[in-house]
Amino acid sequence: MSAPFIIYPAIDIRGGKCVRLIQGDYGQETVYNDNPVEVAVEWQAGGAEWIHLVDLDGAKEGRPINAELIGHIASSVKVPVQVGGGLRTEADVERLLELGVSRVILGTAAIEDRSFVERVLKSYGSKIAIGIDARNGYVATRGWLDTSEVKAEDLALQLAEAGATTFIFTDISRDGMMKGPNTEAIVSLARASKQTVIASGGVSTLADIKSLAEYREAGVGGAIVGKALYTGAIQLSDAVELAAAR
Description:
Elements: E1 6-14, E2 17-22, E3 25-33, H1 36-45, E4 51-55, H2 56-61, H3 67-76, E5 81-84, H4 90-98, E6 103-106, H5 108-112, H6 114-124, E7 128-135, E8 138-141, E9 146-151, H7 152-161, E10 166-171, H8 183-193, E11 196-200, H9 206-213, E12 220-225, H10 227-231, H11 236-244
Parallel strand pairs: 1-4, 1-12, 4-5, 5-6, 6-7, 7-10, 10-11, 11-12
Antiparallel strand pairs: 1-2, 2-3, 7-8, 8-9
Helix pairs in contact: 1-3, 7-8, 9-11
C-alpha cells in the first residue's frame, strides 16, 4: 500500500471569524465567514479527512486566543483537527489536546525555545507537528514578522532527531498568492528529514495537488488548501478524490 496523501482544508481564525491573509499580512485580510464552526462542518461534509486550523490572533500575541472556539470546532466535527498559532508553553499544548484537538503545530517555539519543543515531543510524540515557515530558505517566526538565521532543512533535521515525525512547510512568498507551491523545497525537506512533510501555501489548482501527490513516497504526506477552496478555484471533493487516487 502506498503512502497516504491527505488534503487539509484550512480555517484561519481572526477575531472569531474565518479569514484569509495575503502572505501573512494582517493588513490584507478577507473575511470569508463569520462562523468558523459552520465552515468546518461544511468541509467535513465535502469529504475532508482532517481540518487545519490557525489561530491568527494567537500567532500575533504569542498565546492561544481562540482556544474556546477551536474546542467548539473540534467537538462539532468527527474528523481530526490540527491547530497552530501562538503555542509557546506546555500548558497551551495540553489545553488544546484536552479540548479535543488531535495535533498541535509548533512554529516560532521551534526556533526560540528548543528545550520546550523537545519536552513536548517526548511527552506527546505524533500529536505534535512542527510548522516550518520559510522565507528564501530561512525560517520565519512570530506570525512571519521576523526571519531567523536558521535554514529550514537544518531545523527539520535537528527536530527529526528529537522525535518530530510531521512537518508543515510553508514558503511564505507563495502563501495566498495562488501561484502554486514550492514543490522542490517541500520534497527536499521531506528527503532531508526522512519524515512526513505537509505542503502549505500556494496550492491553487488540482494540478498542484497532483504534482505534490506524486512525491508521497518521498514523504510528502498532504497539502493544506485555503484560499483556493474559498474562491472556488478548487472543489474540496475533487481534491480529496484526486489525493486518494493511486
